[in-house]
Specification:
By secondary structure, the protein is of the alpha+beta class. The chain is 27% helix and 29% strand. The chain is built from ten helices and 15 strands. Helix 2 runs parallel beside helix 3 and helix 6 packs across helix 8. The longest helix is centred in the middle third of the chain and has 15 residues.
Length: 341
């Protein structure tokens, strides 16, 4: 009987980068032993404090042989950055959830490390859509979940300021309390129409109609922007309450009368979206993409977002990932008082 040829070790050709700073506010087991056991052929690289993900991946792609698959263990910011690199180098992406919220991983059915490694071993991939965002000619940023302006970026900026001292969870609570006292509306201009708004969320795919903060996507493949514009007709309390991204939390807040009424939230379903942003004096000009802050060069800037079909190929479970395409409202909805001239 002929000898059976030895099998290639699982993970051969995979570069998996771990962001050691992701998910530090969540208690979870270190996945190093699981990676060693299930991916013996992979190169697992822990990103150092002073290392840049782009530089690490670029150097690896210049080596011979170059990785055939790029993987990341981290939160949404790390996943989005690696997705941009996977798109640049035309490689499939393995997403291993290691952050606090893991919005994209959960949308793709990758709820934990085991589910992600099962998906990789199963070999099933899906080409997912994404958002290409830029401000005033800066380089394009790939976002897998959402891009946001207004009260949410202000909250994230305050949270990150105290993150080292308070941690992400407590820092987020303190930041929400501070933002509830200091938030001011933004002035935006869309297609020559001007409005004062609490926030703008640009999500990808059709998302659940009753949410304002579409930070976790409901669809993986639809190349359409789902834009939610929260007009500044209510209180700061409602502005902060509208940032609830969980369905159950949003439903409870709505019962309590804390969520903004539907007529205050304008919805657009478009393939491209651009707006001029004019913050109040003394307020920052940042915007957020998948939980990461971006700082445009000027006090006034133009944000441009485009839906990108089949932006990156991702390993997904052999069973169909959760896709709520039929649950979303297929028609654009807007408030009774849209952007005023």
């Amino acid at each position: 009987m002929p000898d059976t040829p030895p099998q290639e070790p699982t993970g051969r050709g995979l570069l998996l980068v771990r962001n050691s700073r992701s998910g530090t506010s969540v208690i979870r087991l270190d996945p190093a032993q699981e990676f060693a056991r299930r991916l013996p052929g992979a190169e697992v690289r822990v990103l150092g404090e002073d290392e840049d993900l782009t530089e690490v991946v670029t150097q690896a792609m210049e080596a011979s042989p170059a990785p055939s698959v790029l993987g990341v263990y981290g939160g949404d910011g790390s996943v989005s950055r690696m997705a941009g690199l996977a798109r640049r180098f035309d490689r499939p992406l393995l997403v291993v959830p290691g952050g606090t919220f893991n919005h994209f991983a959960r949308s793709a059915g990758l709820d934990d490390v085991d589910a992600a490694l099962d998906a990789f071993e199963g070999g099933r991939t899906l080409a997912v859509s994404a958002i290409s965002a830029s401000s005033d000619g800066d380089e394009q940023i790939l976002a897998l979940n959402a891009v946001s302006l207004g009260s949410y970026p202000e909250l994230i900026e305050k949270r990150d300021h105290d993150r080292a001292r308070l941690g992400k969870w407590l820092g987020g609570i303190v930041a929400a309390w501070r933002t509830m006292k200091t938030a001011e509306p933004l002035t935006i201009v869309v297609d020559g129409r001007r409005a004062r708004v609490w926030s703008v969320f640009v999500g990808i795919g059709r998302n659940e109609p009753d949410r304002v903060a579409t930070m976790q996507r409901d669809e993986l493949t639809t190349a359409i922007l789902d834009v939610r514009i929260h007009h500044a007709r209510g209180s700061r309390v409602r502005a902060i309450a509208s940032l609830a991204f969980g369905r159950k939390t949003a439903a409870v807040l709505r019962v309590l009368g804390l969520m903004p009424p539907k007529e205050d939230v304008e919805r657009l379903l478009v393939t491209e979206f651009a707006c001029v942003v004019r913050p109040e004096p003394g307020h920052s000009t940042v915007f957020v993409h998948d939980g990461e802050l971006a700082d445009p060069p000027g006090s006034e800037f133009t944000l441009r977002c485009t839906a990108v079909a089949e932006a990156v190929t991702v390993y997904v479970p052999v069973t169909e990932p959760r896709d709520l395409a039929e649950a979303g409202d297929p028609a654009p909805r807007s408030g009774r008082d849209p952007l005023s001239r």
